[in-house]
Amino acid sequence: MGADSILKENNDLVREAISSDGSTILHIAVGIGNNDFVKNLFSYITEEDVSATRSSDGSTALHIAAIVGNTYAADLLHKKNKHCLRIKDKKGKEPLHKAYENMHLDTIGYLLKAVDEYGKTMLRFYSIGTSVQSHLHPGVEIGVDLLVNAISAKQYNFASDLIQKFPKFASKNDDVLMAIAKTFPSGDYGETHISPSWKHLWEGICIIAELMSLPILRGFLMDEWNGISVSNVMKIVICLLFDAFLFLLGLILLPSVVLLYLMWWMSRLIVEPFTHIQKNKEEMDEAEKVLELVCDEIDKLEFTGTHHPYYTRPILEAACQNAHKVVDEILYRSPEAILSTDQSGYDIIQLAVIHRSERIYNLIYDIGERKNLYRTIVDSSKNNILHLAGRLAPSSKLNKITGALLQLQRELQWREEVKKVVFPTYITQENIFKETPGMVFTREHEKLVKDGESWMKTTAESSSITAALITTIVFAAAITVPGGSNQDTGMPVFSREIAFIIFAVSDAISLFASSTALLVFLSILTARFSEKDFLVSLPRRLLIGICSLLLSAISMMIAFSSTLFLVFCHQKLWMLAPICGLSLIPISFFVALQLPLIVDLFQSTYRRKFGPRRRGKRARFNPDNIRLFFGN
């Protein structure tokens, strides 16, 4: 006999407790998430049963839905009886309170909207772990905590909806903006530049359309037509040709741009890395929206002093976390916030150097009078900014960089960059411990130098063995040509075959590349490994060595495949496909394993990391506002 048959015979079973804690069938069905059964139960219960049926601790079924995060069941129960929203259990807690305790954000969002629609203000539900006599209203405290937790969990859509529904939550204190500063997406993978959007597509189409319709000839005819002459005719011809060129360029670019965006949107549905980039881009956009909403609410508040106090802690935290979007937004709204200092007296530029936040450094270092201050600023221990650059970077920042070599290189790059900012006399200035910036750097990075030396030697030793093996193999293949030689002329038997030419060229490339790699790795093993060598010399040698080794390995496989085709598969073209396919397997593995290191080495060594060009094209903050504030 089914449950429906039993309930039809005895409707009172719905209201009776069936467990030791006094839970009814409705409580249990909601708790285990059997929502179809919950819908069926509504045929046997009344509106009053939803609020009257409770467990031993006074919980209604809506309390249970809030505890387990069953938003669908909460919606069913709320629609059945709207009054159950404000029913409290024996501890005086409403369903919304229970959802908050268990941090089910979706359920909380639904219940918040339901309570608002019910006509009750959020300022009447009780907070957790705070006194009723708190200077803040308990409901607002819960709302602020909820918003902070949502942002910390990167639930930016939920946070945005919550702010728009209850704007006071965003500006009650600086906790919300602090949460944004701590967890703001880094954008390290370049999603904002790689991932296109429909807005960018439309902007691109508009630019192309403008090029295609550029009225050069019309303006010339209207403004500069002085009658028929040879010079005027030549100008008209030139303008016509230029207009035609722009029109043809637009015809080529327009479908290309549209096709590029369509290919991107198609590929992100299939290839996981593209999907990951798209998700990161969307997360960045959502975070920026929440940041703007919070700052909008803070700007509505009145304050005394040079800048809003709610911006002080967040901008300093953002400087530590390299959250340049947060710093950019705050300085755009309140340029005076650049004066903020922490408890140790460090300002934004000092924190950016200590925590290796290059985006913050690039954003604010070149600001008129402030730049002169940065050159001479010292802390309580008489450490200038170059002393701070000599400190070891936080482990959280170093761990993002591949290998001890590149970690030390990044530290040296910071020292060299800051050295350009300070006055020459400050390069050898001593602090209260009689240490110069160079001495601080050597002491702090002693272990990293040893680790970098060990890492370089280990890499060079293993790579040199591989290079030596490849050199031996391809040299032997060169002197024992495939198919042998003609006894009369001494010429290779297959000398006129295309495959033999491919073999000869690839074998020569492999031999020269492996020999180069071997010599480069030997030069690494015999290097001095001084601090300055880690800046350019050693990374450049390693980059050349690995690239040469990669080229030699690929060329060796091509030469080997050509030999197989000549000796065993002559005149059998169908054998070419499996040979190429099999040869691609080791090549693919080697490239996949070595390419990340090659890219890291190249970017770390040759990509510019500091300077005004690295501020970002989309920065809202204008340094002229700071110059105006300081009267510079």
From TrEMBL:
PANTHER family in alphabetical order: ANKYRIN REPEAT-CONTAINING DOMAIN, PGG DOMAIN PROTEIN-RELATED, CASKIN
Transmembrane segments: 233-262, 465-483, 498-522, 542-568, 574-599
Organism this protein belongs to: Artemisia annua (Sweet wormwood)
Protein name: Ankyrin repeat-containing domain, PGG domain protein
Keyword Transmembrane: yes
Pfam families: Ank_2, PGG
Domain PGG residue range list: 454-566
Lineage: superkingdom: Eukaryota
GO CC aspect terms: membrane
Keywords assigned: Membrane, Transmembrane, Transmembrane helix
Matching SUPFAM superfamilies: Ankyrin repeat
